[in-house]
Write a structure and sequence with these properties.
About 15% of the residues lie in helices and about 40% in strands. The strands form 9 sheets. It has an 8-stranded mixed β-sheet, sandwiched between helices. The chain has a 5-stranded mixed β-sheet with strand order 1-4-9-6-7, with no helix packed on it. Strands 2, 3, 5, 8 and 10 form a 5-stranded antiparallel β-sheet that branches.
């Protein structure tokens, strides 16, 4: 999520947090409502560590004045953030970098844990956020206090599961039991019902010790599947039991349950990408570009039509592209779009903000591919660049849409920070028509979501709303603080930030609530299937591939490859083959030019002597009930045209002590191998060139250092360099990358050029 403008002047402190260290085994479960872990845990510089403590057989709810005695040996307690982590992942901050250079923490904290469940594994989490001082967790204790309610009860459902054919009903017995004090009257309700199902109780209220009959009725249009239904009994307290309902024979769309482990695997990959690329995934960095490659590769392999959209205006200089992916099928005049920003801030890896939304969308898209339902409407996904710098990527995307295309987008759904550890449940424009499915899913879980007031106009949905496109979305909250009423409703820490690591180095994979993330991604899937998936059975589908995937040809000659098709679902079908992206002077033919899926064809590309030398991505399209494409990379040698040199005369501002900036030169039609003494001419205006690093970046991302902070206080760079690029491919986008690494001076890339074959 983008920071509010009024906060941009706040000084940012950059720290590095290493991978979380967790002891190999937790302390043994402790009967009762208190316990101690006196096992030492080392706290290294710039690390996050945890010490676990498991509570079992505690009969009471935690107290509003639970106590946490903590002993930490450390030489500079101002480096430390100390939090108590509840079994559900909620974080309660005990100590937040106060105390300056004082030694050690030996203090008992009081925490309101009345919204939590007592039994489970609690953790003391310690973040060391600065260098030069280490320490250890010496011991800590937890006393949940509380007392057994004077009147208490339990609820159970028998049988605990049942199956029903769509259009029929299933029943079960709800049994209540007085467990303490006097019997009481409890009201029975049910949540988690799928669309097309209703629940009734006979009677609807009982005295504890008595039972009621639950009846779940379904319509024929319900979606087949398995649904966990929560039965609630509300008296002096609320107790729940789960009834698992399996529906068969329904005609509604089959809505999948998204695997949270798969979403977290994507988050882990984003964390690895950040750690390998300077610790962040800011839009202008290699970390962002690697994130783009990861998302694009997954989607392409799954059969999506994927486009990298460079942001050519309005974005930060050097920002990477948007990623747009479209699933085939469905009414192209009714587009439902799902988006999340892929970039993060420079302070950290950006896992909750916004790896969470990006990973949830990616896994939902992959599940859509694997299940391959029949589509009613068109589904499009977007991963946005440069959101943190002002919603720039999504704004650029919308600005490039013709008015006719804007009207085709019926709703844009945005997902920004959906795993906050102290999160709430927020929906953008919650009362609008475009939010109906999103709210319905969270209502089915009894979550009582609220309007996302904190995030209004601060994320990419604003780009669509401002262009007249209806928008909605999920969020779990950023730096705003949870109210007492919200803590009572949702659990977590009253007065604590929804995300205590917002825009900080500790926004790592440890900064994610699995519960919140899981409820969000399942709501995304529910919304997508309800908006765009047909109630019919999966349609016939197929795939296409080319082998080999690339080939070379001398101008005036021909080259061949095999095109294979495969039936993915449904019946085999006849598809028509065609090619696009051929250079002038080249033609393609197929033998045969139409095949039944499961069969193959021979592709022949013929060239004339006048075709321009170069490498060309040729799209091979197979068109049947839908269209599928594969790419064949054609390299032409010896032809006329093309050039092995180029110049970029456009000025590019070099920010003071800022991110690296790039200036591009595109080489095409170069038939020669790059030289071991390629020439790079550089003209940079800057008053202190000792601040600068200057590199030539090849099309494959390889970097060749030209200037590395030499020259001291001299003005300007006006020089010709040589570089051995003989191992590179000539054709593609070459970049001059410049970074200013010290304060007080700014400058400009004035002009530069490259000659690969001097």
């Amino acid at each position: 999520m983008r920071r509010r403008r009024s906060l941009l002047s706040t000084a940012l402190v950059t720290v590095v947090v290493a991978a979380m260290a967790i002891p190999a085994s937790a302390a043994a479960p402790l009967a009762g409502c208190s316990g101690t872990n006196d096992g030492d845990v080392t706290i290294g510089d710039n690390t996050t560590v945890e010490s676990p403590l498991t509570i079992s057989d505690c009969p009471s709810v935690p107290s509003a004045t639970s106590t946490v005695p903590v002993k930490i040996v450390h030489t500079y307690v101002g480096d430390l953030q100390v939090s108590l982590i509840a079994p559900d992942g909620s974080a309660y901050v005990l100590h937040n970098r106060s105390g300056g250079s004082a030694d050690n923490i030996d203090q008992t904290y009081t925490v309101d844990l009345s919204g939590e469940t007592s039994n489970g594994t609690w953790k003391l989490r310690v973040n060391d956020n600065a260098a030069n001082d280490t320490g250890r967790i010496d011991s800590w204790s937890l006393n949940l206090g509380g007392s057994t309610p004077a009147n208490d009860f339990s609820v159970a459902v028998s049988p605990a599961s049942g199956s029903v054919a769509a259009g029929a009903s299933a029943s079960a017995t709800v049994q209540t039991q007085t467990t303490a004090g006097q019997a009481q009257t409890v009201q029975l309700t049910a949540t988690g019902l799928p669309s097309g199902a209703t629940a009734s109780f006979s009677p609807a209220s009982v005295t504890t010790g008595s039972s009621s009959t639950l009846t779940v009725s379904t319509t024929a249009s319900i979606s087949s599947g398995t649904y966990p239904i929560t039965v609630r009994a509300a008296g002096t307290t609320t107790k729940t039991a789960t009834y698992t309902l399996t529906v068969t024979g329904g005609t509604g769309p089959q809505i999948p349950d998204i695997d949270i482990a798969a979403v977290k695997a994507h988050l882990a990959q984003f964390g690895t990408i950040a750690s390998q690329n300077g610790g962040n995934r800011r839009s202008t960095t290699a970390g962002y570009r690697a994130s783009v490659a990861y998302v694009k590769d997954k989607l392409t392999a799954a059969g999506f039509t994927v486009t990298e959209q460079p942001c050519t205006s309005g974005c930060t200089s050097g920002a990477g592209p948007n990623v747009i992916a479209e699933w085939p099928g469905g009414n192209a005049n009714n587009v439902y779009m799902f988006g999340a920003h892929l970039d993060g801030v420079s302070a950290g890896p950006g896992i909750n903000d916004n790896g969470s939304g990006s990973a949830a969308l990616l896994e939902t898209a992959l599940v859509l591919s694997r299940t391959n339902p029949s589509m009613l409407n068109k589904v499009r996904f977007g991963w946005w660049t440069d959101e943190e710098q002002g919603l720039n990527g999504s704004r650029f995307y919308v600005s490039q849409l013709p008015s006719t295309e804007r009207t085709k987008i019926k709703t844009y759904h945005n997902f920004d920070m959906i795993g906050s550890v102290n999160g709430g449940y927020f929906i953008n424009n919650i009362t609008s028509a475009q939010s109906v499915h999103m709210k319905a899913y969270w209502d089915s879980l009894g979550l009582q979501p609220e309007e996302n007031t904190e995030g209004r106009n601060r994320s990419d949905d604003a780009s669509f709303t401002n262009a007249g496109i209806p928008a909605s979305g999920y969020a779990m909250g950023a730096s705003a603080r949870k109210t007492a009423a919200q803590a009572t409703k949702w659990g977590g820490t009253s007065g604590g930030a929804f995300d205590p690591c917002y825009h900080s180095s500790c926004d790592t994979t440890a900064n994610i609530s699995d519960t919140h993330l899981n409820r969000a991604v399942d709501g995304i899937a529910y919304t997508l299937w309800k908006s765009a998936v047909s109630s019919g059975t999966p349609g016939a589908d197929f795939s296409v591939s080319v082998s080999p995937a690339s080939g070379s040809v001398a101008a005036g000659s021909s080259v061949t490859a095999s095109v294979s098709t495969r039936t993915v679902s449904g019946d085999a079908q006849t598809v028509q083959l065609s090619a696009s992206g051929l250079p002038s002077g080249a033609t393609a033919s197929f033998s045969p030019d139409s095949v039944t899926t499961g069969s193959g064809s021979t592709l022949t590309i013929s060239t004339t002597a006048s075709v321009a030398a170069g490498t060309y991505p040729v799209a091979i399209t197979a068109a049947g009930s839908s269209a599928r494409t594969a790419t064949y990379s054609l390299t032409v040698a010896g032809g006329g045209g093309g050039s092995c040199s180029g110049t970029n005369p456009n000025d590019v501002a070099i920010p003071d002590a800022g991110a690296a900036v790039d200036s591009d030169v595109v080489i095409s039609g170069c038939s020669a191998t790059p030289s071991a003494a390629a020439v790079v001419t550089v003209r940079i205006v800057h008053p202190y060139i000792g601040d600068l690093t200057v590199s030539l970046i090849a099309p494959d991302g390889s970097a060749y250092t030209l200037h590395n902070r030499s020259g001291g206080s001299a003005d300007n760079i006006d020089r010709t360099y040589t570089a051995d690029v003989s191992s590179e491919i000539a054709n593609g986008t070459w970049k001059l990358r410049v970074r200013d690494l010290a304060a007080s001076d700014a400058g400009t890339i004035d002009t530069w050029g490259v000659n690969l074959t001097p």
